[in-house]
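Summary for the funding panel

The consortium committed to producing paired sequence-structure records for every protein in the target list. Below we show the first two records in order, beginning with the earlier of the two.
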Amino acid sequence: MKLLHLIKISIVSVFLFGFVSCDIISEPSDNQTLALLALALPQSVNLEFEALVNGQKITSGTNTLSDSRSVQFRDFRLYISEVKFVRADGSTADVSLSTDNVWQANGVSLVDLETYRTTETNIKVNGSVPIGSYTGIQFTVGVPAALNHLNSTNQSSPLNIGSMYWSWTGGYKHANIEFSYNGTDWTSLHLGSTTCSGAPNYGNCSKKFRAIILLSGQVNVSNQKISLDVDKLLTGHTYGAMGMCMPGTGAPCDSLVQAFGMNISNGAMDSSITQRFFSLR
């Protein structure tokens, strides 16, 4: 991808040089046009997601949290969509996600960070964005509302995975994280849209529970790591009677939903709740 990108830039640069050199007197408008053409060139996007426990990548066995608790995982998957890079003035540039019909399709990518439920993992989100200087990144954890109630049995991967589909009234599981502190009692955090109506497709969900994550800082478009801090996700959570954690199920699940920065009552992002799960690395 990087080689192809360099070749594209070289070809266009030669063309632009020739165009300018043949015009002895270049009008200001011509220079502006050439500048816009250069800015329109896409550059490759390569995001790499990693889940960390006490600063270390999660393993398939026992992991030790910073508070000395042990934790194991049997699922750690998230849908990522609506990726944008943020400029210094606050404007954004949309990332066009590539399509492989395995991990990415229809502008949606599936990040899979463990191997208990699946034999393969995927830490990459790939695509392209216009060349520019960016000071942040924004993405959504979840499937876009327009795609959330598709028939998963006839979709391209990764939207055809039955274990990532919640129900016909809720659509996909935007995030599916299952963990245990003792290897016996499992907590399943399933984030998905709720309070959906409009049979038979149930596309009108008043509580979307799609986390919009904004991370500020110097970003490397072609090679940027994004960390998921498990210690911060599990802050304030202890295993209780509620092993199935879905939005609206109450304590001890509420703290898990709030780690994404979402309001547990209406399923929207809440400016009074700082998401604590994701960070640039």
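The next record, for a separate protein in the list, is shown here:
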Amino acid sequence: MSPTGSVRTALSVNVNKVALVRNTRHLGIPSVTRAASLCLQAGAHGITVHPRPDERHIRRHDVFDLAELLQAWPDREYNIEGNPFHNLMDVAREVKARGLPLHQLTFVPDSVGQFTSDHGWRFPDDADRLRPLIAEAQALGVRVSLFMDAEPEQMAAAQAVGADRVELYTEPYAAAHTQGGEALPQQLERFAAAAQAALDAGLAVNAGHDLNRDNLTPFLRTVPGVSEVSIGHALIADALELGYAATVRAYLACIAAAQR
């Protein structure tokens, strides 16, 4: 059995970059919902979006269009990422008010104009601000995952504020995998320790940021209990060459390889 144990790692496809390309023109192509449909048809376990306040990629209507699409896929999950102190909670409230599916909110501490996510929440600094919003999301029937750096000592604090999961910010691992050398085993050890600390605290573990076809399998072979990986940039880039269906199947094969 692999270090991930019996946990089946789900693949959630982040379609932000599809929206980014679409937004460069006013033709409605490529279609975000079509991309999501093709990924789901190929076996993706869920769809992720990160609607930022400036709508640089995912726009407000995309969130609801995708939620409506996912009504036809009751065995798949919808994950919306974002900063709960910006636009995330308003979007989540409206999705639920419309009776549309929403399974997970991933709270990310981005600034409004931030280029991409690059750090996690800090405790105890963020505890008092996050606690009531986590409770509100859960009252809506939505699971909450906190975007976190791979620091084992922070995991119990994430559970203490009420989170259901943590999403480990994997860019440091991805960079080490690219560079090679001694940094790679050190990063793998760090992420494995953080994941185990989260599991020991009663949290489920997600992971995401710069995961790709090269680094996904060794990560999942080493890091225990990963319930979900959210992959966008690399997957959409691969899809430009391979197509959505072949790309999703390739990532699912990477996941399966880790569990052999």
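Regarding this second record: The two ends are 7 Å apart (CA to CA). The CA atoms of residues 3 and 245 lie 28 Å apart.
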